[in-house]
Design goal:
single chain, 1117 residues, alpha/beta, 7-stranded antiparallel sheet, 38 helices
């Protein structure tokens, strides 16, 4: 057995992107704790501040730095770890470990790889080596070949024939790959796959579209003990990335022979690779007879299964398997890395067994991906082998149908309940679905896409048989018959008298009260009253890893409609924290960070914490984060049922709050929790902290306007409207451009700047739909500097840890802007005004807990270089843009750069403790001698058809942080971590709108000064030439001549793009091809001049001019 390491470097996964989300925060946090339990000193490096793992008490030493070879080498040189654990950092961590080894750094400092040997990483990730390994151990792979050029790919295509699957090596989420059915698709996927692969290698594989896709999560220790933790079945057949597939655990359609066959293959693979820790194996299994017959010759092969790929690390599926079974995969993997065997590691859930016991499930788990197409309606909704989902939800129940319905409720897509049907489908002839024409296929989307589940239910409601659906979709008939069960109960509810038995049948199948109501001509509340009258309440069952064979000591729960309740009311003082649900654009990991800290703060105050969430990727749904966890949808029905279960006496409608009813915490779960505040208040259920009235005043645009007017604080002129006519009248009264803003939305959903009445008419309908019956605000748009603060208020004192200033002027959503702490260009008068307004708003609103306020500073230049450091005094005015009466996405960032424990202070104020009693004065906290910069991270390369230009509606999926003693190195590190850093030398393409040309002069001069070669479109080139700077004119893609703008990007001539736009839609569309091309080849594309100017300013520094230090050292100076 290897010697236990004394000091281990854990590599994080960096910012949240499509294909790599919050699951690695959960894994890294669990692993760091496990290592420390073993007496191992842990050093953590990650660039994402919005994570629990980067908290200073999770690892012994925490670095929030870019994940590059240069940075990590400096950390290794300083910390001298004897082991490095990269398998908990996703593909980022794995690729970085390979790069460190290739650069000779691991050998130089005598650092050994833990968990997965370097040879195993190469064998699993290098497509050619992986095929050879499987061949050596006798495991079947589909006919395939690896190539490194388009020319080689053409030869393989000729040999294998279309359709073909393109799989790039060393990538995450299927980046760059896809299924090619045509020659054009093949060329496109080969080029994008070669560009995405760090080693420019792709596997071209015969398509097995329509076969079943099965996953096994397996674990192995250093003594070659192996177990299967979970097997999972993708409802969507092969051809859909597993991250985009609806997944069920355990598998439902496999025979015991098939289960054992694939289990044996999975264990053989992990043994052959020599992995010590967790591993995910993906396999294709031949379909059943119905689907096989529809596939024809492709339905059967010379092997009943094929191995598709292996992830030699903790993966997205590992998080799902861990939460589905209760088995702490990352914790066990970390213990194995220290040299422990499975039989030496206690099961932390049961505390009765060891980790060598394979979990057993007596329930069904369903995962549904959360796609971003509610924000990006113009995007390509087809799902294939390249992942597009930003997150996922998980639901647990005793039947597949019930778990599926709970998962749909958990998605939190406006209007997309289980009975949703698109009005576009009304013209389709459903009888033709078995042999759909191209037009009919477009009308009823039964092909792989984010709406397929609803399209299947639509067809079943209109008489299509489950077997016909299976023939068209490739979905196994077991699942289509289960979907039909749901439709049959819908029909019963519509046609039969509702009695206790029918209501119980519907609840056991997962129907929500809000769906039973309309089907039976009743209100949701009437259904709830009937349930109470007939004694139909959910009971809660444990997730215990062992199907109740052993007693579980640290259980978590799911609801079902049976008899025995295993979650008796938790005794003592307690509070219920509503989590933030699935990761999505506008509501990401930051809110899970806040929910977890809220649970810990309650526990520290002697209050038991009860967490409710539906996201399997998160720390909040880990088995030991809170005193009790309910894995449930975050809707009114679920929360009220949980409150009743946790109350010492029944809660009747209209019942007044009493000490026996635990209060609910809504401030930390983002907009999801805030949106529940009004319904909970209406049911007279207690809310901890700011009242529902306070929340409504701040969240409702019209009420907030009236509130500001009463206390004499200015905001941009405007009014709330409820009709198109009113919108036009207000806009014409205040003058264009105007900002359109719905209330109670997240991530700036449906917000837009419009420049004239025609644009307003084209957009106001979308905003009103997003507002869901609430009024929409039409505000005057001010192009000023945007400033942001987070604050804690105890009802009297207001503490502001720091003021953040956005690099981009107002008009870019705060989540998509680069935020600087402290506000370097703000004058003392502007700082004083922000502090004054924040204090007055907090007091007048009666905030108890957190709030976030965004301001715009109007007057003087819209862009000030941070190098000017507040020296520019100008006649400016500060306006309030909005107040969020909750935690914000900047809470983790501002907490880490200032050292102020924001969530802990907020929870204590909610419990009645003043800021003074916690040792804090009101006002602005002392300014730290550092600069912290939060940079957005985008996943545009994964979302075909989506435009990357920045505006009031948020588009980023994550964030990274740069921190240093001065602005330039901090900015450099933020850009490096976010993948937006321009190379020191290179070429750039400029296409700048007329209104920005004057502001662009200094940018162009700076580019010339650092030696950049400049290419530009006609109008921009004329301006550059007038400055006496060499420039090459490039035709736009719609103009005659080559190479055009897109050619320069795709052939690698330019390494960056600046493409600003005017307010006109025609100009927006004109630059779309430029921005898409830049996204697809993954080079920086700046759509706001302010960001570009800052990025070019950072080029003046060198790679050795920035610091690399543990986080506290930046503050403790």
């Amino acid at each position: 057995m290897r010697e236990k390491p004394s000091k281990v470097l854990v590599i994080g996964s960096g910012p949240i992107v499509i294909g790599q989300a919050a699951e690695f925060d959960y894994a890294g946090t669990q692993a760091c704790r496990a290592l420390r339990e073993e007496g191992v000193t842990t050093v953590l490096v990650n660039s994402n501040p919005a994570t629990i793992m980067t908290d200073e008490d999770i690892a012994d030493i925490v670095y929030i730095e870019p994940l590059t070879v240069e940075v990590v080498e400096r950390i290794i040189a300083r910390e001298r770890p004897d082991g490095i654990l990269p398998t908990l950092g996703g593909q980022t961590g794995l690729n970085l470990a390979v790069d460190l080894a290739d650069a000779g750094i691991l050998e130089k400092y005598n650092v050994r790889l833990l968990g997965t040997p370097l040879k195993s990483i190469r064998q699993a990730e290098d497509r050619d080596l992986f095929r050879e390994l499987l061949k050596d151990i006798g495991e079947p792979t589909p006919p395939s070949d690896t190539v490194t050029s388009l020319q080689q790919a053409e030869l393989v295509k000729k040999e294998l024939g279309l359709p073909l699957v393109v799989r790039p090596a060393y990538t995450l989420g299927g980046t760059g790959g896809g299924i090619a059915n045509t020659d054009d698709e093949f060329d496109s996927f080969v080029n994008s796959g070669l560009a995405a692969s760090p080693i420019s290698q792709i596997l071209i594989e015969k398509s097995l579209v329509g076969w079943k896709e099965i996953e096994y999560e397996v674990m192995r220790d250093g003594a070659d003990n192996c177990i299967t933790i979970c097997n999972m079945e993708n409802i969507d057949p092969m051809g859909v990335h597993t991250g985009d597939s609806i997944v069920v655990a355990p598998s439902q359609t496999l025979s015991d022979k098939e289960y054992q066959l694939l289990r044996t293959a999975s264990l053989k693979i992990i043994r052959s690779l020599g992995i010590e820790g967790g591993c995910n194996v993906q396999l294709a299994l031949e379909p059943g007879d119905v689907v096989a017959e529809a596939l024809g010759a492709n339905g059967r092969s010379d092997s009943p299964y094929y191995v598709i790929e292996v992830n030699p690390r903790v993966s997205r599926s590992s998080a799902l398997a861990s939460k589905a079974t209760g088995y702490p995969i990352a914790r066990v993997a970390a213990k194995i890395a220290t040299g422990k065997r499975l039989d030496e590691i206690p099961n932390a859930v049961t505390e009765k067994t060891v980790a060598a016991f394979e979990p057993a499930l007596d329930y069904c788990v369903v995962k549904i991906p959360r796609w971003p197409f509610d924000k990006f309606a113009s995007g390509d909704r087809t799902i294939t082998t390249q992942m597009k989902a930003t997150g996922e939800v998980m639901a647990i129940d005793r039947s597949f149908e019930a778990a599926l319905q709970k998962a749909v409720r958990s998605l939190e897509i406006s209007g997309h309940h289980i009975m949703w049907e698109s009005p576009n489908w009304n013209t389709v002839d459903v009888s033709t679905t078995i042999n759909p024409s191209a037009n009919n296929r477009q009308a009823l989307p039964l092909h792989p896409n984010d709406e397929r589940l609803w399209a299947v239910l639509y067809a079943l409601r209109r008489g299509t048989s489950p077997e016909e659906i299976s023939c068209v979709t490739g979905i196994d008939p077991w699942f289509t018959r289960a979907f039909k069960n749901i439709v049959d109960v819908e029909n019963k509810l519509l046609s039969q008298t509702l009695d206790r038995d029918l209501l119980r049948e519907a609840k056991r199948l997962g129907f929500g009260d809000d769906k039973i109501g309309p089907l039976t001509d009743r209100t949701t509340e009437e259904i709830r009253d009937l349930r109470r009258k007939w004694g139909l309440a959910p009971v809660y069952k444990m997730v215990d890893t062992c199907a109740a064979e052993f007693e579980a000591q640290t259980p978590y729960f799911y609801s079902t409609y049976e008899d025995e309740n295993e979650a008796e009311c938790l005794p003592g003082h307690k509070a219920i924290i509503i989590g933030s649900g699935p990761i999505r654009i506008g509501q990401g990991i930051e809110f899970d960070y806040c929910s977890v800290h809220a649970a810990w703060a309650l526990q520290a105050a002697g209050i038991k914490s009860i967490l409710v969430n539906s996201n399997p990727e998160t720390v909040s749904t880990d088995f030991d984060t809170s005193d009790r966890l309910y894995f449930e949808p975050l809707d009114e029905e679920s929360i009220r049922d949980i409150i009743e279960n946790e109350s010492l006496e029944p809660v009747a409608n209209g019942h007044t709050s009493s000490p026996s009813i635990p209060p609910t915490v809504v401030q930390f779960g983002g907009q999801t929790a805030i949106n529940l505040s009004q319904s909970l208040s209406k049911a007279t259920l207690p809310i901890l902290g700011s009242t529902a009235h306070t929340i409504d005043t701040a969240s409702d645009r019209h009420l907030f306007e009236e509130f500001l007017a009463r206390i004499g604080i200015p905001n941009p002129p405007g009014a709330a409207v409820s009709t198109r006519k009113q919108a036009i009248e207000v806009a014409e009264s205040i003058g264009y451009p105007v900002l359109v803003r719905p209330s109670y939305v997240l991530g700036g959903r449906a917000m837009e700047i419009v420049g004239d009445t025609k644009e307003l008419m084209g957009y106001i309908g979308h905003a009103m739909e997003a507002a869901e019956g609430r009024r929409v605000l039409i505000d005057k748009y001010f192009e000023g500097r945007e400033v942001e603060v987070d604050a804690v208020c105890d009802g009297d004192r207001v503490l502001i840890p720091g003021i953040m200033e956005h690099i981009e002027r107002a008009g870019v959503h705060s989540g998509d802007s680069m935020a600087i702490y402290p506000g370097l260009t703000l004058s003392q008068n502007e700082v004083d005004t922000v502090v004054d307004y924040t204090t007055r708003i907090g007091r007048a609103l009666g905030v108890r807990g957190l709030m976030n306020i965004q301001y715009v500073v109007v007057g003087g230049p819209a862009y000030r270089s941070p190098h000017d450091v507040g020296t520019q005094e100008a006649n400016t005015e500060v306006y309030v843009i909005e107040v969020n009466p909750r935690s914000s996405r900047t809470i983790p960032f501002i907490s880490k750069v200032t050292g102020v424990p924001m969530v802990q202070l907020a929870v204590n104020t909610m419990l009645g403790k003043t800021l003074a009693e916690q040792g804090y004065d009101g006002g602005l906290w002392k300014r730290q001698k550092l600069v912290g910069i939060k940079a957005p991270v985008f996943s545009m390369s994964k979302l075909a058809g989506v435009d990357s230009y920045l505006g009031p509606e948020m588009k980023s999926t994550g964030e990274a942080m740069g921190i240093d003693t001065e602005f330039r190195p901090a900015l450099m590190k933020a850009l490096m971590a976010a993948g937006m850093m321009l190379p020191a030398q290179g070429a750039i393409l400029l296409s700048i709108a007329d209104r920005n040309k004057a502001d662009a002069v200094s940018l162009i001069k700076d580019l010339a000064k650092v030696g950049y070669e400049i290419f530009a479109t006609q109008g921009t080139a004329s301006m550059v030439s007038e400055l006496g700077i060499p420039v090459a004119i490039v035709p736009k893609v719609h103009e005659d001549g080559h190479p055009n703008t897109v050619d320069l990007i795709t052939n690698g001539t330019v390494q960056g793009v600046v493409n600003t736009i005017s307010g006109e839609r025609s100009a927006l569309e004109d630059g779309f091809e430029i921005r898409r091309a830049a996204a697809e080849v993954r080079i920086p594309c700046f759509t706001w001049l302010d960001t570009a100017r800052a990025a070019v300013e950072s080029l003046a520094g060198g790679k050795d001019t920035y610091s690399v230090r543990p986080l506290p050292e930046y503050r403790d100076r």
